Amino acid sequence: MATDTKAEVYQPRLNPFVFPSETTIRFVLLIVSVIGASLFIYSVLYLRYLEKQGELELLFNQAKECLSLSFPTPSIQNLEKLQVASNAFEQCKQPVEREFLKAAWLAVGGVGIVLSLATIIYSLFPFFMIRLEGMAAFDKQSAIEVHLKKLCTEMGIAPPPIFLQKPISRALGGRAFGSLGQYYVVLPAGLIKWFSQDREAFNAVLLHELSHLRNKDVDKTYFSVAAGCAFVIAALIPFAFSLLSNSGAELFNASWRVIVLVLLVYLTVAAVVRSREFYADVRASTHPGSTALNRVLITFLKPKHPGWQTALISLLEHLPFVRHNHWQFAFQFHPEPSERCSKLQKTDGLFQIDFWIAFGTGIAVTVAYDGIASLIISILRTALTHTDAWLESLVAGLVFAPLVVGIVGIGVWRETFASLIHKTHSVKAGKLGIGLGLGLILGQFLSFENITSSWQALGMEQLNPAIQLTSLAFNLLWSFLLLVSLYCFFKWVAASAAAWLSVAISSGFSRSLYIGGLIVAGIWLSLWFGVIFLIQNARVLLLTANSVEMFFSLILVLPVAIAYIALQPLTLIALITLWAFPLSAWLRPHRLHLTYATSLPSWVFLEQTSHQIDLPTQNQPQLRSTFITGLINGLTYCGLLLVIRLILRVIIPESVRDADWFKLILYFIGYIGFPALMQTVVAVRIARRVKYLNFIHGLFAAFTAGCTMTLGVLLVNLLFGGTINFQFAWNIFSQIVNWGALLALLAMLIVTSTLRKIDLIRSL
Question: Which residues does the UniProt record annotate as the domain Peptidase M48 (predicted)?
C-alpha cells in the first residue's frame, strides 16, 4: 500500500561562531579558578607560618580578652548600644584583621608567581616539543609544503604556520601548537603517508588542525595546561609540604577544601581542551575539502603513540570508557568520536551551557573574591575618608557581577539564540541561576574567609548552641533568597536576549548587541549583589548572648530596610530596567514585526542554502494594551482616592484629620500600601493574560499604573489644601513605584508557579 511522505526539508547547521565559544568561556573560568585556588593556598600557608611562630594564638587571645572587657550585649531596640557593640567588635578584631590583610597581600604575590610561571611554561612549550621529539621542517619547494600553504590560504590563515614533520612517529593525527604569535603544525610520518595514499583523509586532518589556528584556541589551550602545571608546582606542592607538620582537625579543615579546588581546576582544564575539538571540527567542515572528516573521526580515534608533551592532555584517555557515564566524560581531555560526530552534524549542542559550568563559576568567583576581600576593603577605606557597609557591599558586587555575567550570561544568550531559531529545546536559564547560587554558597564554605573570619577565629560562634542555631537559620534564609533571586535574574536575562535577538535577526546582528545586554545585566546584578551581601553582613549581630532576640528583630526590621532601599534612586533605575530594556527592542527604528515567519539572514547558518529558511513565528509584545490596562488601573485608584478623601472630610472632624497619627495612616495605607496592592493586582492580571514576556509586561503595567497614581496623589493633595515640594513628590513616586514593582514580582512568581503546578496536575 502506497503512503504519502512529506519530503524532509534540510535544516542547515547553526553558526556557533556568532558568539564567543564555549572554549573562551571555560578558559575564563579556568583563570578565575586558578587565581581563587592559589589565593586560598597562599593565605593558608601564611596562617600556618603565624601558627608555628606562636603569633596567631597570641593575637586571638588578645582579641578575646578585649571583647570580654568591652563588648556589650547589643539590642535592636537600642541603636546607641548597638553602635557601641559594633565599634567594640571592630576595634578588638583590628590586630587579627591586620594579619589577614598581610595574608591577602602575600596571596596576591603568590598568584603573581603562579601566573608568571604559567607564562614561562607556555612560552617554552614549543621549544621543548620541537627539540625533544625530533621535529624537522619540510622542504619549502616540496609538493606537500605547497599544498599545506594552499590550505592555509583557503582557510584564511595569514601568515601561515611553520609546518614540521616527525619522522619517527607513525601516528595518524597532527597537532597545532605554538605561543606568542608563532605557531606550528606537526605532521607525523603516518599522516604524511596519507598525502599520497588518501588525500581526502589527509586534508580532513590538516583542516582540523588549521581550524585550531583559525579559531585562535591554541594560545588558550596551552596556557590552560601551563596554568595547571604552574599551579601544581608553585602552590599545590608547597601546600603538600606544609601538611607534614600538621595533623588532626587542622589538616582536614584545609585539605578537603584544597582537594575540591584542585578538582575544579583539573576539570576546567579538561573542559577547555575538550571543547576546542568540537569547534575545530565544525570550522573544518565548512571547507569543501573536508568530505572525509566524518570517516576520520569514526576510524581515527586517538594517536597510537602520543609523545611526552601530550601525556597530560591524554591523562585519562587510556582508561576504559564507560558508555553514558557523564563524569567519566568530564574527566577526559578529548571527546569521544561519537560525541564529535553528533556535534558536527547538528551544532545546536554547542550553544547549550552546562549546569556544572554555572556551579563551578559560583565556586571560583566566591573563592577568588573572598581571598582578597580584606585587601579590597582596605584599599577602599584608604582611598576614601568615609565608607559604609552599603558601599563596601556594592564594591563586592562590582567584583562578582562582571565575572558571573561574562561567563554564565553569554551562555544564556547563546542558548537563547539556538532556541529561538530551531525551537528544539527550552532555555534552562533558571536552572543555571540555581547552579550559580549553589556554587556561590559552596564557595563560601571553601573560602579562606570561612575558616579564618574574625568572628569564628575569636570563638564567638561557640558561645552557646543558640548562636549556632540562629546562625544556621539566618544562613538558610539568606541562601534561599540568593537562589530565588538568581533563578529570576537569569530568567530575565533569557527573556531580554529573546526580545533583542528576535529584532537583531531581521535588522542585522552586531557584536555590540549582546555586549550591551551583558553590560545592563552586569550593572543590575552588581546592585543586587550589593544588597544581598549587605544582608549577609548583618549575621555578625547574631553572635551575641541574645542571638534569638536579634534574629527575630532582624526579621521585623526587614520592611524598614526594604523601605530604605525603595527610596534609593538606583533601586528605581534598576526596577525600571527590568521591563524597559527588553521592551525597548521594539522601539528601534527598524524594529521587526514578527507576526508572520521572517526570512533568516545568511550569518545565522554555516551553510548557504538555495531555499529560503524562515524564523519560527514569534509573538508580538502587547505594549499598547498593557499600557492602557495600567493607565485604567491608575485612574481607578485616583478616582477612589478622591472619593475616599471627600468621605473622610465629611465624616471625620478636622481635629482628627490634622493629627499626626491620622496623617501617617493616610500616607502609608492610602498613598503607599493601597497603590502597591492595586499595582500588584494589575501586574498579575497582565502576566496571566500575556504569554510572551509575561513578567515584563506585568512590570510595565505596574509602572504605568504607579506613575498615574503618583500624579493622582499629588493632585488630590493640592485639592485638599496640601503643598508639593520635590522631596515629598520623590518619596511618593519612588515608594509607590518601587513597592508596587517588588510586590508585583513576588506575586507574579507565586501565582504563575502555582498555576503551572495546577495545570501539570490536571494534565496527569
Answer: 176-347
